[in-house]
């Protein structure tokens, strides 16, 4: 029998594979064969944030990565990560990163707000629970990022 964490990890896999699609709690609950209320509580308990928050933060983190590591137009990045308009993307990005996508790109410094949620074999959390880097000063962000990079092997690093 599957544990709650097994179910949540399957949901995380589904979200990651379909991050650019139109995802919402109703659709995910239907696919997982759980009531949306039960799934919402389960997900929040295991991951530390709601499904909606997780999806939005993952999309915007992917957008931030593309802003720094690619030369794509901002509107193309917005559409790639699931936003239908430049305005809705800019508003969401500004709410999370506290600056516009263009200002973020000009700083040329990638800091992920929500990496993919993973558990180790003992079901101990390996990634931060919906950390808000926007509320940290530069040194705190740098320390968190360095800690993450030291832990994870598969990271993209921009070399000047």
Automatic annotation (TrEMBL):
Residues 9-107 form the HTH araC/xylS-type domain. One of its GO terms (molecular function) is sequence-specific DNA binding. The keyword Glycoprotein does not apply. Keywords: DNA-binding, Transcription, Transcription regulation. It comes from the Bacteria. PANTHER family: RIGHT ORIGIN-BINDING PROTEIN (PTHR47504). This is AraC family transcriptional regulator. The gene is rob_1.
């Amino acid at each position: 029998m599957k544990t709650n964490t097994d179910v949540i990890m399957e949901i995380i896999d589904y979200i990651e594979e379909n991050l650019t699609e139109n995802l919402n709690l109703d659709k995910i609950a239907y696919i997982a064969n759980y009531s949306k209320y039960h799934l919402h509580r389960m997900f929040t308990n295991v991951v530390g944030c709601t499904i909606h928050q997780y999806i939005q933060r993952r999309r915007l983190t992917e957008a931030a990565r593309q802003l720094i590591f690619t030369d794509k137009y901002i509107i193309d990045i917005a559409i790639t990560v699931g936003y239908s308009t430049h305005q809705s993307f800019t508003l969401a990005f500004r709410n999370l990163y506290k600056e516009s996508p263009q200002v973020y790109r000009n700083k040329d410094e990638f800091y992920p707000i929500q990496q993919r949620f993973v558990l180790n074999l003992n079901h101990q959390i390996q990634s931060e629970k919906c950390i808000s880097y926007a509320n940290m000063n530069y040194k705190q962000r740098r320390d968190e990022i360095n800690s993450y990079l030291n832990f994870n092997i598969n990271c993209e690093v921009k070399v000047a």
